[in-house]
Amino acid sequence: MPITHETLRLVEQMRRAVGSILDSVTRTLVAAWVRAWDQAAIDVAAGIAEVLQAGDGRWPSRRVIERTARMMSALDVIADALARLAELTRTQTVASTAEAARLALDGQGELIASQLPYGSTQAFAARYRRQRPDTVDAIVRRTAEQINARHWPLADEATAAMKRELVRGVVVGDNPRTTAARMLRNLEGEFNGGLTRALNLARTETLDAHRQAAEIGQEDHADVLDGWIWHAELNSSRGRTCPSCWAKHGTVHPLTEPGPIDHQQGRCSRTPKTKSWADLGFDIPEPDDVLPDARQVFDSLPEQERLAIMGRRRLDLLDSGAIAWADLPQLRTTTGWRDSFGIRPIKDLERLATT
User: Fold this and answer.
1) What is the CA radius of gyration of the chain?
2) pTM passes above 0.85
């Protein structure tokens, strides 16, 4: 039952290992996106120059633009580059998913043993219990099936954005060179918007695979477990934990409940919680639980750090007692993705404060 200092050390160790996996996939995708844009920008600039030439100093009509071969070729270059990047994202995500899932599956025994009497049969069994075969492969297959180009049309969206920008100069009558410069900037933004989506997908799927593997690993130790704990990173200096996750930290859930159903790219983990030593048949004193209380940790932070986490209005409502700590998270439903907990909007918190 007690979360020990060793449990917390193991959780932090695993968190850092997952962070290294995420950093690796991030570096790979960012580098690939930069190289792809540097190459595509040459063709785009040449296409823009041809468009300007076709207009004889004026921004040409839509029909002329769409018949400019170099510009249309640049669109094809963009589409091809994004298609390759989408495939790279898929392969990188599948690889990081396998690594993160294996890490979680292998680590559950040590986390559980850290909460049991040292040297006990139960602690030994937790460390060396045989895991289910093919668990990681099943998780990887699920991830690969979810990353489907039909649901992630990067090339089509970026190309459509470029076409909109091409004809925008015709509609608003902008100076041709002003429009051309803006178009190049905006196209780069659309192109890099694909990177943002790729990183979101890769990181979220990797983290979800890690949590799913932890869930399966904990099921294999159900005889000594009382549930799992939503475990957030209560470190304000890293600036990554949102108010919803602060409030969910420490909540206890049954083993059969999936989770944590964190928001996209959320790093909260699923820490196993053993039954009490008395329930497990140990007639010895049980040590105190050392899991940090999120509200106590938050209240002890300097004002500026509390403000950075919550924002002014949310913090005022919380400090005044107008809303409760448990009011901060809100369950959200997103089409094409699982339910998740995120930050409850200020307007909803204000409504709660007046009821």
Assistant:
1) 26
2) yes
pLDDT tens digit sequence for 260-281: 999 989 999 999 999 999 999 9
CB 6 within 8 A of CB 290: no
Provide the CA 144 distance to its chain's centre, in angstroms. Answer: 17
Cα-based distances in Å from 177 to 52, 68, 172: 8, 17, 14
| DSSP code at position 271 | E
Do 226 and 273 form a contact (C-beta atoms < 8 A)? yes
- Give the integer Cα–Cα distance in Å for 331 and 340: 6
Q: How is 167-232 classified by DSSP, letter by letter?
A: HHHHHHT--HHHHHHHHHHHHHHHHHHHHHHHHHHHHHHHHHHHHHHHHHHHHTTGGGEEEEEEE-
Q: Which residues of 300-333 are buried (b: 16+ CB within 10 A; e: fewer)?
A: eeeeeebeebbeeebbebbeeeebeeebbbeebe
Q: Would strands 329-332 and 269-274 be described as parallel, antiparallel, or unpaired?
A: unpaired
What number of other Cβ atoms are within 10 A of residue 246's Cβ?
23
| Rounded-to-integer distance, Cα 238 and Cα 232, Å | 12
The answer to whether residues 212 and 204 touch, using CB atoms and an 8 Å cutoff, is: no
Go through 269-278 and write b for each residue having 16 or more CB atoms within 10 A of its CB, e for each that does not: bbbbbbbebe
Q: Mean pLDDT over residues 241-254, rounded?
A: 96
Residues 6+ apart with CB under 8 A from 218: 108, 112, 225, 228, 255, 270, 272
Residue with tokens 């669109």: 75
What residues contact 53, with CB distance under 8 A and at least 6 apart?
Answer: none
Prior bond of 260 cis (ω within 30°): yes
How confident is residue 155, by pLDDT bands cut at 50, 70 and 90?
Answer: low
φ/ψ of 269, rounded to 5, equals -115, 170
Bridging pattern class, strands 329-332 and 340-343: antiparallel
